[in-house]
Structure formats: structure tokens, C-alpha cells
Amino acid sequence: RCTTTRRMFLHEDIHDEFVARLVKAYGQIKIGNPLEPGVLCGPLHSKQAVAAFEHGISDVAAQGGRVLHGGRVLHNLPGNFVEPTITSIAHDAPVVHREIFAPILHTIKYANIEQAIAWNNEVGQGLSSSLFTTSPEHIFNWIGPAGSDCGIVNVNIPTNGAEIGGAFGCEKETGGGRESGSTAWQQYMRRQTCTINYSGTLPLAQGIKFE
């Protein structure tokens, strides 16, 4: 998915237990040929992507973070395979703000919804975001004008962005514009702006007379 989650903000009340369960779940991921049954994680697309993954893992350690799961290149498999990785790191570490395009998930502890939204919005990218909550107040904080600044703002579903019924698109450095959803008709139409003056007079610029 091009919308795979890069940052996971976890409330301090559930953070430790959730991360422990997440690490256990990651241990069940089967890596290999994606055409084979049961394989969930295939290879990266190139050696350059593997190098970007390794650079990202090195930066996590250099910037005060920890690798909780994964973090290795799988040289025993033919191709560009790496381990899906979970880290624990500060929200403002430069590596957290960088798109690596590799299976690295940064976990971050937060104290309240306002803090989580601010940290969600502090990066340059703005494609997809999601909030999991049972609080209606938090939902409306999240989807409102002071909420997530991404093009896709989900609630209680993952950051998937391929729902054909909704407009798919980004904000900020990720780009602008939308496709599918309510903008789908624009792919089949030609939009024009037409202004008609039916007053019988043509106002000219100030002080200009046409005689």
C-alpha cells in the first residue's frame, strides 16, 4: 500500500501493553514471495530501497530511538527483502519526519488528543491519517478544522486510501488535487468558465472613454 502507516501515536494509558502485543503480531508475519499462499510481506523494489531502509534504521539509533522488532536486511532470501520493523522514538526525530518507503513503523507515546493531533500535523507529508477512538469528542476534534491536515482523515479504520467511493488525494508536500469519489466526473468532462454581460454597456477602466 502507498498509504502504509509510518507513525503510530499511542496514548500513555495503553502504550506499553499495545506495543508488546504489536511486537508479538509482527512476529507472525511471513516474508517471501508474495505469490505464495500465506506470505504477507514481499520484497522492496530495488537495492536503493534496501539502502534507504538501512539508512533509516541507522538514523533511528543515532537519534535516540530503539528498534523493538526487525531492523535487518534478509540476505538469506533472493531479492530485496527486509524485516518489517517497529521502533520506539521521539515524535520530532528527523527520521520520523522523513518518508523512507520501507516497512518501518515508529511508535510514539502521547498524553492527550490535542498533542497527538499536533504531532500528526507537524510533518511535511499529508496523504492519509487515521484515529482509533470510542470518544465522539475526539472524533470531531480529529475531523474538524483543527484536526488532521491530511487529504484522507479516517476514523476507526486503517490509513487505507483506496476506497473508490471517496476522493483520493493529498495535502502539503505530498501534493494536491483529488481523484475518484466526487471528482471522478472531471476525468470525463471539459470544464469551462463562461461570463456573459447582458447589460448592454461595457464598463471601461477608470477615466477611459471610448468615443
Please give a structural write-up.
- By secondary structure, the protein is of the alpha/beta class.
- It is 21% helix and 15% strand.
- It has helices at residues 15-26, 47-62, 113-121, 136-143, and strands spanning 7-11, 66-69, 85-88, 104-110, 128-131, 152-155, 168-169, 178-179.
- The strands form 3 sheets. A 4-stranded mixed β-sheet has the order 1-4-3-2, sandwiched between helices.
- The longest helix has 16 residues, at 47-62.
List keywords for this structure.
211 residues; alpha/beta; four-stranded mixed beta sheet; two-stranded parallel sheet; elongated
How do the helices and strands line up, and which of them pair or pack?
Layout: E1 7-11, H1 15-26, H2 47-62, E2 66-69, E3 85-88, E4 104-110, H3 113-121, E5 128-131, H4 136-143, E6 152-155, E7 168-169, E8 178-179
